Amino acid sequence: MPGAKSNTAVIVRVPDGQPPSLSKEDIQIPSPESNQVLVNLSHVAQNPTDVQAFDSNAFGDGAVLGCDFVGEVVELGGGVTRYAKGDVIAGLVWGGEKKGLGGYSQYCLADERISFKVPGTLSREHASTVPLASATAWLALFSKDCLAIDRSSGATVLVWGGSSSVGLYTIQLATITGLNVVTTCSAKHTDLVRSYGAKHVFDYKDPQVAKKIKQAAPDLKYVFDTIGQSASSTTASNTLAGNGSLCTVRPGKANTENVASGTKVTDVLVWTAFLKDHAYGEFKWPASKADHELCTELFEKVPEWLGKGVVKPSNPKVLSGLDKVGKGFQEYRDGKISAYKIVYEV
């Protein structure tokens, strides 16, 4: 773009025979294609997938990770109608999928349909927590390839891991659409998840948790496991009445081998929001027009919901500078993150 000379980013480097490391380097500024805008980033939020992709070396040398970001639109691609230069937007990108493109950088690209203009009442750091987690929640609940809940049904859904970032957005989006929410979390977060809309809250550490949930919701047909561990999927599936459905946040339905007999298992991949084929390791997802349209609808609605306080963003813990990414990754590995999201001020 005119006037810009560099794009400082945190790059994954994989020396021969060595584990991956993070390196701060200057890379090329990406150019927006049709329906894309170039964004000068001010904030990027950390997600578990960032750390998992780094630790497993999912994308190899030269990858730029980071998925959730906020910044100012500085250049428009062809056909863009929703934004103008100077707009502050929150965007989503699969950091690492395309070499040199990701959130841990000064400049990134946003799809104008899978992003939203940040309301004036919302801080940039709060807004950066919204795109990935809210889209994951929305798809898990309503995609035909996930739980496929009828939005007019008033059904009950169990959100396993309600105080996680994805869990909190799931509780809110389910409540907005008239669903009844049962959830699990640590005892210390009970009041938090209730304030977001959960009607019944249970301590996931309680040995009798599945039994108690069945008593509270005897006809339960839908579970979204936002944790995606073997223990969480197995226990959550035992709350279902009959042949219910469980959607896991883990790609490829990982860790669901021991779910209750008769459970229909699906997984949610937020990247089906983009109208293109995707692959992650051995797993492949074809382009989904339905998921793309579903997420386009979400991002059209979410600014108003955020502006009115109907949807509350995650609580950010702000770290200054991309130099802190390694520290933030370790905080996730150490299991210290609870009911907040790390956000880096670029």
Automatic annotation (TrEMBL):
GO terms assigned for molecular function: oxidoreductase activity, acting on NAD(P)H
Highest taxon listed in the record's lineage: Eukaryota
Residues in Enoyl reductase (ER) domain copies: 17-337
UniProt keyword Cell inner membrane present: no
Keyword set, alphabetical order: Oxidoreductase
UniProt keyword Oxidoreductase present: yes
Similarity comment: family membership: Belongs to the zinc-containing alcohol dehydrogenase family.
Protein name stated in the entry: Putative zinc-binding dehydrogenase family oxidoreductase
Lineage: Eukaryota, Fungi, Dikarya, Ascomycota, Pezizomycotina
